[in-house]
Specification:
By secondary structure, the protein is of the alpha/beta class. It is built from twelve helices and 15 strands. The chain is globular.
Length: about 375
């Protein structure tokens, strides 16, 4: 098996397009052609984890947190982060990071956390927005009815009108057009020198931005008018709340703080969590915001969407106070505590898809924080 075989499976589980714009995901060290017969899963790629990988004979590491996040100006052994990257490359160990792509994906970290809190419906707090390349624009023209088929077929030859697995997709609407042609015109329909009213069809087709110029040229070639009317509309991405960052869980049954805390402890295998009760917070919650790791950037969205409590790994003191002031209860369990438990699920998913690859979870990967 190769690194490419493993990354192909990873990208079906957590497509990289789901990652946040600020993130650095994908294959960070190594080549797709390198061997990947043994893979080690970890949250953080530390010196201890890298030593474990070397001892196990791992040829690839899947590190949830990207070990290369900010741009590297140098690559020396004088800095511990750079030294880890340098040593992994020297050892021929490929490193891949899914990070926020794995959070956002269906069945990913967000969904795992939500399932541990109780039965209910979960949707993304910050919906993933996606627009297929073939649907980035809409091209519109007006033409005589007997010219519609030729124009549609011509545009289809350059990729316009493609929606998913369907081709020649278009919309037609009949109407009336007017024009007044001057002395130098040669109208294909009607006459110059007076206001003309003609029967026309409005024809719409989606088109990719990369082939827009070709679509305009093709439309001119197939259109019978001397001056074809052409309109181009950019299309906005479509949000999909089944995929995205953070989660909004609506529980089937309301739950009080002690019960919610016990569920979190059981899910994460921790002994303590921090709770900051919101000002005027209800005794029981039904709508809960979720974000693995550090979720402060999503708290406002969670509150705006009616979340009565927000569960994440860590937040700054003033961020907790601000949420409390808006009546939202904050539950903090430690950054990597809200992520590490998912590695076993990822191990099982990878093992099922890659039976010839040894998939293991690091034992050296632990939270840097200790609570006494």
């Amino acid at each position: 098996m190769t690194v490419r075989d493993v990354t192909n499976v990873l990208e079906t589980i957590a497509p990289l397009r789901f990652a946040a714009e600020w993130d650095n995901v994908g294959l960070l060290i190594g080549s797709p052609q390198w061997s990947a017969d043994s893979v080690l899963l970890t949250i953080d790629l530390t010196e201890e984890v890298l030593a474990e990988a070397t001892q196990r004979g791992a040829s690839m590491i899947i590190a949830y947190h990207p070990p290369i996040f900010h741009p590297l100006r140098t690559l020396t052994d004088g800095d511990v982060r750079q030294a880890i990257v340098l040593e992994a490359a020297r050892a021929g160990i490929a490193v891949y990071s899914p990070h926020t792509a794995l959070d956002a994906a269906p069945g990913g970290v967000n969904d795992w956390l939500a399932r541990g809190l109780g039965e209910g419906d979960v949707r993304a707090l910050e919906a993933y927005e996606y627009l297929p390349q073939s649907e980035q624009c809409k091209v519109v023209t007006y033409c005589p009815g007997d010219a519609v088929d030729a124009i549609r077929s011509g545009l289809a030859t350059i990729g316009a009108g493609r929606i998913g697995n369907y081709q020649l997709c278009s919309f037609e609407m009949k109407g009336h057009g007017t024009f007044f042609g001057g002395d130098d015109t040669n109208p294909a329909v009607g006459e110059r020198g007076s206001l003309q009213r003609v029967d026309e069809v409005r024809l719409e087709m989606v088109c990719g931005a990369s082939n827009l110029a070709l679509a305009v040229m093709t439309l001119r070639e197939f259109h019978p008018y001397e001056e074809p009317p052409i309109e181009v509309y950019p299309l906005l991405p479509r949000p999909d709340r089944k995929v995205g960052h953070g989660g909004r869980l609506v529980l089937d049954q309301r739950v009080n703080v002690p019960t919610l805390v016990e569920r979190i402890k059981a899910l994460l295998g921790v002994q303590r969590v921090g709770v900051a009760l919101g000002r005027g917070a209800p005794q029981e919650f039904q709508i809960i915001g979720i974000c693995p790791g550090a979720g402060a950037s999503l708290v406002e969205a969670a509150i705006d969407q009616g979340c009565e409590a927000f569960f994440t790994g860590e937040m700054k003191h003033h961020e907790v106070l601000a949420a409390q002031g808006r009546g939202c209860t904050i539950i903090l369990a430690g950054h990597t505590n809200t992520e590490r438990g998912y590695l076993t699920l990822l191990q099982n998913r990878l093992a099922k898809a890659l039976p010839d690859v040894a998939i293991s979870v690091s034992k050296a990967d632990v939270s840097p924080m200790r609570f006494y």
